[in-house]
Design a protein that fits this description.
With about 170 residues, this protein is mostly helical. It has a single domain, classed as Up-down Bundle (Ferritin). It is built from five helices and no strands. Helix 1 packs antiparallel against helix 2 and helix 1 packs antiparallel against helix 3. The protein is elongated and about 55 Å long.
């Protein structure tokens, strides 16, 4: 059974994961408006991943005998100046999520909840991958600068990304 402090930390993180899904939906819409279908695809995979992350925690809380109480999800940003600005925002957001998951892991350590610590290890590793992937695309966008051909080449590359349902835990 989850103790109250651990349950609260998970519920707050579930909300943040659902906000991430919502934010990435907003970014997907931004790229759709620009008709950058590869970026749309990349964001769609992000949306699905964030949903899976939230549901992994959601199911874990239930499995551990916790009670799910969902809170309102904040309205996401919906206006950016460029794809570069979007990816800068994504990296900043992923760094925030990493910090937040680390805080949940701190609660697991503090409450000596070894099962939660083990469960959270998957999320910690996932965040390393998330930041690296976003950082790589951000670096490419910085190199591309104003080169439309470079942007379209990257768009074509991002169109190849596919969603693979994660095995969490």
């Amino acid at each position: 059974m989850l103790n109250e402090k651990m349950e609260k930390a998970f519920l707050e993180q579930i909300n943040k994961e659902l906000f991430s899904e919502y934010l990435y939906l907003s970014m997907k819409a931004y790229f759709a408006d620009l008709n950058l279908q590869g970026f749309v695809n990349w964001m769609d995979v992000q949306v699905q991943e964030e949903h899976a992350h939230a549901m992994g925690m959601f199911d874990y809380v239930i499995e551990r005998g916790g009670k799910i109480v969902l809170e309102a999800i904040d309205k996401p940003e919906n206006n950016w100046k460029s794809p570069l600005e979007v990816f800068r925002a994504i990296l900043k957001h992923e760094q925030f999520v990493t910090s937040s998951i680390n805080s949940v892991a701190d609660v697991a350590e503090e409450t000596r909840d070894r099962a939660a610590s083990i469960f959270l290890n998957w999320y910690i590793k996932e965040q390393v991958e998330e930041e690296a992937n976003v950082g790589g695309i951000l670096a490419q966008l910085e190199l591309i600068g104003e080169d439309k051909n470079g942007l379209f080449a990257l768009d074509k590359e991002l169109a190849t990304r596919t969603f693979v349902a994660p095995v969490i835990g």
